[in-house]
Amino acid sequence: MRQIKILILLFVGVSISSCSDFLSPEPLSAITADSYFKNDSEILTGVINMYDGIQGLNSTRSTDNHGIQQEFQVTEMRSDNTRTKSGEGESAQFDAFNVDPTNGIVADYYRSYYNVVYRANIVLNNLGSASDAMKPSFEAEAKFVRAYAYFNLVRLFGDIPLIDKVIDPLEKEIQFTRVNEDLVYDLIVSDLITAVDGLGAGTYGRASKSAAQALLAKVYLTLGEHSLAKQLCLDVMGAGFTLESNFKDIFYNEGNDEVIWAIVYDGDNATDSQNFSAEWLNSVGRTVGLNYVTTEAAAALDLLGGSRTKYSYRLDEIQISQNQVAKYIPNGDANLGIEPTSGDPTLAGNDWIIMRYADVLLMYVEATMGTATETSDASALIAFNKIRARADMPLASSITKQELLDERRAELAFENQRWFDLIRFGAANEVYTKFSADNGYGYSPTDLLLPIPQGEIGLSAGLLTQNPGY
Asked: pTM, whole model, 2 decimals?
C-alpha cells in the first residue's frame, strides 16, 4: 500500500534558508495556518505535510528542504562505512573528519529537520480545531514526528535549541539558545510515550504504534535504559512483523512485512522522488559518486555478510576498482534481479527504510545484554539467530558485544545506522582513531558532534554557540 500522495502546503513556507525564515511575517493575501486549520480534513493535510518535510525535495537548490535525502552524508560518510569516490568537494570533508562550520550539507540537514519540527508544531498548535475522535491520533502522530526529528538532531549536534511550540520572530532566545541535551531527550521520551499511547496499526509510510515503540526503544538504548527498551522490543516482536526470507526483497519489494516505517518515494515524479540513490552511482547522479563503500566495510561484509553481501555492495560497473552501495539501486541490475524504480534514476522511487524488524531483533539482543559484554540468554539467541539464519551464517551459542556490533554492521550496512551504533556501543573513539590513522584522516573526539552551522550562529547575533573543536 502506497503512502497518501505528499502535499506541499503553501502556508507552511517550505523553501527556507534558515531556521528564522519560517518566523517571517505572513503575507496578507496568502492562506496561513491561523486561517486554514479549521477541521479534521484540513489538519490531516498538515499531518501529511510533516512527512513531506522528512521526504524532502528532489532538487539542487540550497534553500530547499531536502529532509532525509542528504542524511547519508552526515552519518554513513562520516563513519568507516562509506566515502566519496573522488575525495573532493564539501562531501569529502565527511570522509576526512574535517567538517567546516560553513559546510552547506550540514546547514541543509540542520534547517531541514528544524523545519520538520516546525511542521509538527503547526499541527500541535491547531489541535483545538480537531474533533474529539481525531485529536488523540493527530497529537500522537505529530509528537512522533517531532521526536524523530529531535532524536536525529540531538545525536548529531549535541545541545541544541528546543522549540516545542510555534514561535514568533521576537522569540529569538528560544530559537537560538542551546539547551542541555538531557532536556531534549526529556521531550523526545515524553512525545514518544504519547505516540505509543495514541497510535494504532497505521501504514508503513506513516507513524504507527509499533514504529513509536521501536523508536522509543532506540532512544532508551541511547540513554542506557535497557529494561525499558527490552519491553518495547518485545511488544514490537509480538505485533506481526516478520523477516523477509530473501534479503533483497526488503529493499525491492516495497511495503513488505519487515518494514515498520519507511519514507515513501514515487519514481518519475518531480516532487515525490529522490535523487540520493543516483548519487551513489558512477555517471548516473549529478556527482561523480558519493557514498562509495570503504575497503573496511567491504572486507567486513565479505567476512560477515553471508548471503547479504551481494545485495549490500557491488563493483562499480564503470570503474571496477570501486564499490557501490547495492541496497537502493535506482536504475536496476539484471545480475542481481533488480528492476529500475523509474525511467530516470535521478527521479528514483526507492523508498527509504527508517525502521525494520531486523533492527528491532538486534535491539532486543542489545537490551538483554545491557551493560554486560556477553549474553547466552535463550530469547536473545533466538532473535539473533533468526537474522544469522537468513544470512546463511553459522548460528551463535553466545553473543559478545563486539559480535552484536559486527552483526548490526553487516545487517544494517548503509542504512545510516553505523555512526549512531558505534557511539551508543562506546566504540566510536577506538574505531575512528584506527580508521583515521589507516587512511591518513584527521579524526579527533570532537568530531563525534557536527558543527553548529555558521550561518545560524551569524543569524543569532551571538546567542547560538559553537561545538568544541570548530
From this structure: 0.93
